[in-house]
Design a protein that fits this description.
single chain; 105 residues; mainly alpha; 4 helices; rod-shaped
Length: 105
């Protein structure tokens, strides 16, 4: 029901609650392929972040001997810095850093 200004007048509290709850239902569910695509994108971006960090640390002059001395401190810093994705970032970091240090990169 509309008033003379075109505003909707509620007939009951039930209508208000149903309108508000309509947006909390979540809308359309995501398909499995969308969820898998998002997971791969997040994982790939996390690995790439570590990959770039490994390059930057290497080109900044950090040697393998330096890294071996501080390896566990660096590894421990990845968890709070990157949260649950810290292991994936660390994987990219160490893969790239060790490739460059060994001359494979």
């Amino acid at each position: 029901m509309l008033n003379d200004k075109g505003e909707f007048l509620w007939n009951s509290y039930y209508q208000i609650i149903m309108l508000l709850l309509m947006y909390l239902d979540g809308g359309e569910p995501l398909s499995v392929s969308a969820i898998v695509t998002m997971a791969l994108a997040i994982g790939g971006a996390s690995y790439s972040t570590g990959y770039v960090l490994g390059e930057r640390v290497y080109y900044a002059g950090y040697t393998n001997a330096d890294y071996q001395k501080n390896k566990w401190l660096i590894r421990a810093a990845f968890a709070p810095a990157f949260g649950g994705l810290g292991a994936i970032v660390l994987l990219g970091f160490e893969n790239r850093f060790y490739d460059l240090v060994s001359g494979k990169g």
